[in-house]
Amino acid sequence: MADIDVKVASWKLVEVGRVVLIRRGPFTGKLAAIVEIVDHRRVLVDGPSTEENKTVPRHVLPLAHATLTHFVIPKLPRAAGTGPVRKLWEKNEIDGKWAKSNYAQKTLQNERRKNLNDFERFKVLRLRKQARFEVQKAHAKVRAAA
């Protein structure tokens, strides 16, 4: 008989406990956890973030308005209330993990860039020019040595 190796799917699954990023609606850019799956297009989410301005009330969210993240709250019971979700959210440090993720850091950087004034943009331009010059100088030195 042939040896068959069964592997778990590598994509992110819609499951209870999966943390999602809301992309549309009044809670755009906030995190929430899937508490219950309503049907193949909608889920019940609850986002009890530790930061007051990032909380998401419990509501039904279309999956088209959400992006699944890599974070999962393990052992979250189906249709759990806000209290147990909050405890598991804090225990698993979802806000801290999200802040360290590349997507969150890139989003924060883009927001900071958008809010620069003219003089700050000019300073960024000058610093980038200086950095590029230093890299070119080091590269020329390596080429001359070779």
Name its key features.
146 residues, 4 helices, SH3 type barrels, KOW, single chain, alpha+beta
Task: Give a structural overview.
With 146 residues, the chain is an alpha+beta fold. The protein contains four helices and five strands, in the order βββββαααα. β2 and β3 (42-47) form a beta hairpin. It has a five-stranded antiparallel beta sheet with strand order 4-3-2-1-5. It folds into two domains: 18-93, SH3 type barrels, CATH 2.30.30; 116-145. The mean pLDDT is 92.
Compact overview of the structure:
Helix content is 40%, strand content 22%. By secondary structure, the chain is α+β, with helices and mostly antiparallel strands.
